[in-house]
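Here is the promised in-class demo. Please do not try to memorize the tokens; focus on the logic of going from shape to residues.
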């Protein structure tokens, strides 16, 4: 069995920098045509100049002959200069601005502490139809970690929508039925990315037989009823939902420790996992829309003219469990089941679904 789809785009990706960037870039560039690159480096990418410089570092380590196109973002702070953002958009240097509530996730310490202080930047984004990508969680310690997405929608996202009704918003890595319903009710101005791992994991997986640090991410996986809501949205041919892997590489030494960091590295197995999930849901015919069409179109881009072939093998495909980085390693996502769908590059052929 095989399936040929347009080359997918990853609309939410972490590449890090330095040695990690060099190690992980090939896993995405081999299968994806473009990706929205997250700016939460240390220090973060907070200006147009920093975004331009980061893009150059990515391009410098791409595999030879790769056509992968990194689409850059700027990290929003309380003091972001609206003029700098406007110039970056006009110059084609960024495709979106990323909102991290301060303290909500990896390297978010410089994020927004008061959404009121960002209104001038939000106005620039609305005027230019440039998406605001949102890490949709409050960072209030008094709010239960499993409720932080819903509370963020109520406290912050509803307010942004009321201020700038025309602003394109992407609720990144949506994890709850509440988030799904918010996006549906505010589409077409609002969309959401859904990750590979949130389609597979519920919160029980983090504690199955002990604490599993390589299933820990932010936002954390939720109850099974929420995973089912994500699956329904992803496989239901709804244009508001599209792939953003949130593939987030961390050194194993930083995850397997007393205070482990959040993030799951899915890039090497993302498409194989997706094919399994969509086949299991009886929705293989919907995979291309989710992975290759809905995201680019929300960002005002044409879907890729290139294709990839997904071929199902009789025996499980061999999958590496880790990626070496110097004297350390990055653990590759284990979905908990065998993978049979192998990705084969195949340009110039396209099936109409």
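The designed amino acids, position by position:
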């Amino acid at each position: 069995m095989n399936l040929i789809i347009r080359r997918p785009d990853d609309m939410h990706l972490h590449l890090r920098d330095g040695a990690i960037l060099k190690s992980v870039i090939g896993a995405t560039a081999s299968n994806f045509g473009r990706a929205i690159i997250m700016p939460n480096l240390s220090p973060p990418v907070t200006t147009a100049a920093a975004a331009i410089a980061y893009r150059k570092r990515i391009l410098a380590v791409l595999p030879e002959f790769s056509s992968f196109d990194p689409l850059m973002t700027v990290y929003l702070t309380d003091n972001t200069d609206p003029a700098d953002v406007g110039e970056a958009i006009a110059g084609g240097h960024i495709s979106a601005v990323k909102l991290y509530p301060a303290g909500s996730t990896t390297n978010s310490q410089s994020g927004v502490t008061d959404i009121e202080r960002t209104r001038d930047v939000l106005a620039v984004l609305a005027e230019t139809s440039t998406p605001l990508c949102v890490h949709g969680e409050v960072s209030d310690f008094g709010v239960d970690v499993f409720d932080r997405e819903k509370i963020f929608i109520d406290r912050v996202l509803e307010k942004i929508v009321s201020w700038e009704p025309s602003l394109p918003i992407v609720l990144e890595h949506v994890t709850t039925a509440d988030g799904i319903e918010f996006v549906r009710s505010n589409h077409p101005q609002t969309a959401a990315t859904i990750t590979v791992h949130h389609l597979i994991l519920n919160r029980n997986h983090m504690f199955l037989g002990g604490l599993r640090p390589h299933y820990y991410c932010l936002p954390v996986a939720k109850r099974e009823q929420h995973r089912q809501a994500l699956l329904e949205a992803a496989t239901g041919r709804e244009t508001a939902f599209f792939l953003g892997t949130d593939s987030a590489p961390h050194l194993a030494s930083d995850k397997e420790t007393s205070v482990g960091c959040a993030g799951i590295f899915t890039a090497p197995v993302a498409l194989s996992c997706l094919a399994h999930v969509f086949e299991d849901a009886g929705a293989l015919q919907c995979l291309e829309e989710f992975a290759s069409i809905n995201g680019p179109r929300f960002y005002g881009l044409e879907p890729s003219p290139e294709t990839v072939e997904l071929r199902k093998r009789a025996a499980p495909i061999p999958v590496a469990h880790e990626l070496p980085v110097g004297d350390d390693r990055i653990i590759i996502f284990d979905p908990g089941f065998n993978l049979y769908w192998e990705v084969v590059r195949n340009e110039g052929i396209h099936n109409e679904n």
